[in-house]
Amino acid sequence: MTRQITLIGAPVQTGAWRRGCLMGPDALRTAGLDRALADLGHTVVDAGDVTPEAVTVPAPANPAIRDLDLCAGWVRALQAAGDLGPETTPIFMGGDHLMAAGTVPAMAKRAQSAGRPLFVLWLDAHSDIHDFETTETGNLHGTPVAYFTGLSEFTPQFPELPAKVDPANICMIGLRSVDPAEKAALARTDIQVADMRAIDEHGIAAPLRTFLQKVEAAGGDLHVSFDVDFLEPDIAPAVGTTVPGGATFREAHLVMEYLHDSGLVTSLDIAELNPFMDDRGKTARLMVDFVASLFGKAVLDRPTRSRWT
C-alpha cells in the first residue's frame, strides 16, 4: 500500500535542558528519509520546518519551569501544522518530545473529525506524564502525556485541547526511567504499560499485538510517538536522555514490522534525535531504517494482516 506522506520538521529544543535537538529534522533529511520512503513507492512531500508562535503566557507556580513562552509557542504552532486532511500520513521530525503536546492533539482532532478515536503507541524510556506542578527539572518534554489526555490542567499556558486522547487508548512500551510522581500518575490511569522488565519476561510482540487488536477493533487511527531513547544507547547514542537497557535493534525492527503489517498507523513522531550527540550520523541513519521498515521495507514480503488474531 503506497501513501501520501508529508514530512514536517519540528526543531524543538526548549522542552529539554540539553541543546541540539533543533538539528534533528535536518539530520533525518541528510540521512535520506525522503529518498528511503520514495524508493518504497510512496509520494513524499517535505513541508519544511515549523516555527514557534510568539506568545507570552502567565508563569506557573513552579519556579523550575524554563522557557515556558517558547514552549507554549511551539505547542500552538505544531497543533496548527498538524491540521491536515485525511489523505496524508504526516511524519513529524523532532525535536524533543515536547513536540507531542502539539502533534498528538492535532492528530486527535483529525481522528475526531473523521468519527474515529485516536490511539497512541508511546515508544519511550520515560512516561512523560508530569505536569506543571510535579516536574522537578522544569523540562517540559516530560509533560505531553498529562497534557494531551487532559489528566492535568495546562491552560492558559498551553492552548485548550482541540481533542483529548483517552488514556485507555495509549500503550507505552519500553519504560525504564519513571519517577515516583509519574508512577502514581500512571497508576491512576488505564494506560497499557509494558516496561523493559515485562519485555524481558514476555517479549515485545505480546503487548504490541494486544494493543493493535484493540486499535483495529475500535476502527481507530494510530499515532506512533517514537523517542530515540526507547532504544539501547549503544545502537542509538544521539539522545540527551540515554537510559541503559533499552530496546535492541531486532526488537525495534520487529515493532516496526508489526506496525507495517497491521496497516493501522496514520501518523508518526520521531522525537529526541540530537545529532550533536551522534557518532557520524549513526542514529539518524538507524531511525531512517526503522521508519522505512514501518512503511514497507522488508527482507521478505509478507501479506498485510487484515486482522490481529
Explain what the structure shows.
- The protein is α/β, with parallel strands linked by helices.
- It has one domain: Ureohydrolase domain (Arginase, Chain A).
- The chain is built from ten helices and eight strands.
- Strands 2-1-3-8-7-4-5-6 form an eight-stranded parallel sheet.
- The longest helix has 14 residues, at 68-81.
In short:
The protein has 309 residues and is an alpha/beta fold.
**CATH-defined superfamily:** Ureohydrolase domain
So what's the overall shape?
globular
Using the 3D structure, state the CATH architecture.
3-Layer(aba) Sandwich
How much of the residues is beta strand, in percent? Answer: 15-25%
Number of domains: 1
Low-confidence stretches: none
Number of strands: 8
How many helices? The count is 10
The level 1 CATH classification is Alpha Beta
Strand order of the biggest β-sheet? 2-1-3-8-7-4-5-6
Task: State the helicity in percent bands.
Answer: 25-40%
User: How would you characterize the largest beta sheet?
Assistant: 8 strands, parallel
Q: Span from first to last CA?
A: 21 Å
Q: Rg, please?
A: 18 Å
* Main structural class: alpha/beta
Order of helices and strands: EHHEHEHEHEHEHHEHEH
CATH fold group: Arginase, Chain A
Report mean pLDDT, rounded to a whole number: 94
